[in-house]
Amino acid sequence: MRLTVVGCSGSGPGPASAASCYLVEHDGFRVLLDLGSGAFGALQALADPDSIDAVYLSHLHADHCLDVVPFVVWHRYSGRSSRRRVPLIAPAGAERRLGLVYDEGGAPLTDVFDFAATPVSAVLGPFTVQTARTAHPVECHAVRLTAHGSSLVYTGDTGPSRAVVDLAHGADVLLAEAAHPDRDGLPPDLHLTGRQAGEAGAAAGVRRLLVTHVPAWVDPGAQLAAARTAFPGAELVAPGATYDV
Ligand SMILES: [Zn+2]
Ligand SMILES: [Zn+2]
């Protein structure tokens, strides 16, 4: 499978990147992992929006879901949509929440999306999907996509989590958030530091660790250096970068 970084700025869009959005494709099937603020713009430079076969939202924080709105507008009004309904997997309540983001009346979005609550496991096109609840203030699910014997795990947002490490066990690629700078007094069960992202990759025994979700106000070089203290080969993602998994 192939991973393309559409947006990787943590906690909101930054000057150099949209918020979280990752395009994963295999055998001509394309799934978006998150569709955060600003990501729909960047997506159009990388893929025809009509070619997106499914959307997976880890959780309903704005930096992971807000660009569902321009995705709907595009499908309704561009004249370029084939009008097939797109499966949208998200925590329960997404249909109501995203409808309210679209307009104050909470108009249904079911002409564009086929909503499904996040499953523990499922089949999605050529992918086997497995999920795990993360350590985050709202319902958030990390996801493992497996195809042709290769696995990609995306943490979504999480603090240190045994469940996420277990989900990532032996994966080829772990795409791990590292939003917190390493300092005292951090709130628990919210985000990983760079070091904690590295520790998660090492504990899971993954082949490759990709560090992401660094906010615009945090030094990405410091996050990478901290991740490398526990996982020496850790890499920092960038918008537009592609990875064969
Ligand atoms: Zn986030
Ligand atoms: Zn979040």
Automatic annotation (TrEMBL):
- List, alphabetically, the SMART domains matched: Lactamase_B (SM00849)
Query: In this protein, which residues make up the domain named Metallo-beta-lactamase?
Result: 18-195
Xref: PROSITE patterns? PROKAR_LIPOPROTEIN
Q: Which InterPro entries match?
A: Metallo-B-lactamas (IPR001279), RibonucZ/Hydroxyglut_hydro (IPR036866)
Q: Which Pfam families does the record match to this protein?
A: Lactamase_B_2
PANTHER family documented for this protein: METALLO-HYDROLASE YHFI-RELATED, ZINC PHOSPHODIESTERASE ELAC PROTEIN 1
This protein is called MBL fold metallo-hydrolase
Source organism = Geodermatophilus arenarius
Q: What is the lineage of its organism?
A: Bacteria, Bacillati, Actinomycetota, Actinomycetes, Geodermatophilales
